[in-house]
């Protein structure tokens, strides 16, 4: 599976959009981009995933560039409860999922 | 609530002992995954089962073993425990149908080895 690169940490003001970037320049055509988050020591929570097209659900939007070498997770109106470590993962089919270090997002009042 | 149930939530044991962690996947999910998360390391993939068969192995120590039973629940066995095995152990499950299905994680078992 392709590797991903994420910033170590980011801050966001409460109520503003949080845009979390991820680089995956070695992604191959059949690999999906997944986003998870982990709040404190809870189990990782699935957020969203996509292959080529932009995706949106009740939690977030996923924007994948046309060349698929990078993506952005958007939390449209961040709240304090969105403070967490966010993981971007590239995964082939139903293989196991390998987590990197992620981005620690802090939402500030 | 992800629908994945892990028991026990907390476990304290001594070095050299053996423990068993249990995972019940979401209803309908055929694949189970085990992960370890210690303080100084991120989420490390250990092993994956699909419908009772081992499918993929990660950085799982020889002292650790797992299985998935006919009712699809899974157990992770940790033996000859060392202080460094203290960690959070997460189980996840997925449907594993065609295409790509997300993993859904339980809330983990916190193991403390003293």
Q: Would you kindly provide a written description of the structure presented here, covering whatever features stand out?
A:
The complex is a heterodimer of chains A (109) and B (114). Chain A has 109 residues and is an all-beta fold. Chain A has no helices and nine strands. Helix content of chain A is 0%, strand content 48%. In chain A, the strands form two sheets. In chain A, strands 1-9-8-3-4 form a five-stranded mixed beta sheet, with no helix packed on it. Chain A has a four-stranded antiparallel beta sheet with strand order 2-7-6-5, with no helix packed on it. Chain B contains no helices and eleven strands.
Total helical segments of chain B? 0
Numbering strands along the chain, what is their spatial order in the largest sheet of chain A? Answer: 1-9-8-3-4
Content of β-strand of chain B: over 45%
The biggest beta sheet of chain A is recorded as: 5 strands, mixed
Mean pLDDT of chain A: 93
Key words describing this protein structure:
heterodimer, A: 109 residues, mainly beta, four-stranded antiparallel beta sheet, 0% helix, 48% strand, globular, B: 114 residues, 51% strand
How would you summarize this macromolecular structure in one to three sentences?
The complex is a heterodimer of chains A (109) and B (114). Chain A is mostly beta strands. Chain A has strands at residues 9-13, 18-23, 31-38, 45-50, 55-56, 61-64, 70-75, 84-92, 103-108.
Q: Which SSEs are present, and which pair or pack?
A:
The complex is a heterodimer of chains A (109) and B (114).
Chain A: E1 9-13, E2 18-23, E3 31-38, E4 45-50, E5 55-56, E6 61-64, E7 70-75, E8 84-92, E9 103-108
Parallel strand pairs in A: 1-9
Antiparallel strand pairs in A: 2-7, 3-4, 3-8, 5-6, 6-7, 8-9
Chain B: E1 5-7, E2 10-13, E3 19-24, E4 31-37, E5 43-50, E6 53-57, E7 64-68, E8 74-78, E9 87-94, E10 104-105, E11 109-113
Parallel strand pairs in B: 2-11
Antiparallel strand pairs in B: 1-3, 3-8, 4-5, 4-9, 5-6, 7-8, 9-10, 9-11
């Amino acid at each position: 599976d392709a590797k991903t690169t994420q910033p170590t940490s980011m801050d966001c003001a409460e109520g503003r959009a949080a845009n979390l970037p991820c680089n995956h320049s070695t992604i191959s055509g059949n690999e999906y981009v997944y986003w998870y988050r982990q709040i404190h020591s809870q189990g990782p929570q699935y957020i969203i995933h996509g292959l080529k097209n932009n995706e949106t659900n009740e939690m977030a939007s996923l924007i994948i560039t046309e060349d698929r070498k990078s993506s952005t997770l958007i939390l449209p109106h961040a709240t304090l409860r969105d403070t967490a470590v966010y993981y971007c993962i590239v995964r082939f089919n139903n293989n196991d999922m390998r987590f990197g270090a992620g981005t620690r997002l802090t939402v500030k009042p | 609530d992800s629908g994945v149930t892990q028991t026990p939530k907390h476990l304290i044991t001594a070095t050299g002992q053996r423990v068993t962690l249990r995972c019940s996947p979401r209803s309908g999910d055929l694949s189970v995954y085990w992960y370890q998360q210690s303080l100084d390391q991120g989420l490390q993939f250990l092993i994956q089962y699909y419908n009772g068969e081992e499918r993929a192995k990660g950085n799982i120590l020889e002292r650790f073993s797992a299985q998935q039973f006919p009712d699809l629940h899974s157990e992770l066995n940790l033996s000859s425990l060392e202080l460094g095995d203290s960690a959070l152990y997460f189980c996840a499950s997925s449907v594993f149908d065609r295409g790509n299905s997300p993993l859904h994680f339980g809330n983990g078992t916190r193991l403390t080895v003293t």
